[in-house]
Write a structure and sequence with these properties.
With 198 residues, the chain is of the alpha/beta class. The protein has 2 domains: 125 residues, Rossmann fold, CATH 3.40.50.1000; 61 residues, no CATH class. Strands 3-2-1-4-5 form a 5-stranded parallel sheet, with helices on both faces. Helix 11 links the parallel strand 4 and strand 5. Helix 4 packs across helix 5. The chain is globular and about 55 Å long. It starts with 5 loop residues before the first strand and ends with a helix. 28% of the residues are buried.
Length: 198
């Protein structure tokens, strides 16, 4: 087996450990899932690949969701509510980097949260690269998403590990020969790493 040179990480459910914003918002503002879901399954998907601007497409929805502030204030609440970083993961990533392994994010995000992650969450400093669907123009589990990352990193798929909490994304990476692992919790993550190294 080839030596591991790069590890790719999903963000939500792997590096960030928080309840989804829509769930938190529904509880706090008494908005039903039926009122929010069409946005997230609809036009928001275009924001994730950079085809639409989140601030623009949000505006018609905010009144339905009982939001009295601006779109910017809504996004601030959204991003801050999911700003819960698993410090154990960050510590482990620092160790992996010291061992000479590149650690990068491979995430499905629109452009504003991508920037928030880079700057406000400090991921620009933590990771060797941030690959966001909004910037790549396609999203997981599309194999093209991973192809573009591999091309940018100039590595063989077998030299790459990928951790994600959604199996369809893991399968998308595996279809190219990347070693994909379902992320369940920190303990399983550590075990998976040990099994690779042993």
């Amino acid at each position: 087996m080839k030596e591991v040179k790069v590890i790719l990480f999903d963000v939500d459910g792997v590096i960030v450990d928080s309840e989804f914003f829509s769930v938190q918002y529904q509880k706090k503002y008494g908005v039903s899932n039926d009122e929010m879901l069409p946005f997230f399954t609809g036009v928001f998907q275009k924001c994730l690949v950079g085809e639409k601007d989140l601030k623009e497409v949000l505006k018609p929805w905010l009144k339905k969701w009982k939001w009295k502030g601006t779109a910017d204030e809504f996004l601030q609440l959204w991003f801050e509510s999911e700003h819960k970083i698993d410090s154990r993961m960050i510590k482990k990533i620092e160790q992996l980097k010291k061992a000479g392994i590149k650690c990068c994010l491979a995430t499905k995000q629109e452009k504003y949260r991508t920037e928030y992650m880079r700057n406000e969450m400090g991921f620009e400093e933590v990771f060797d690269g941030i690959f966001s669907s909004a910037e790549l123009g396609c999203k997981k589990p599309d194999p093209k998403f991973f192809e573009m990352i591999l091309e940018e990193l100039k590595v063989d798929p077998q030299e790459v590990l990928f951790f994600d909490d959604e199996m369809e994304n893991v399968e998308g990476a595996k279809s190219l020969g990347v070693q994909g692992f379902l992320f369940v919790d920190f303990n399983k993550f550590e075990k998976d790493l040990k099994n690779i190294n042993s």
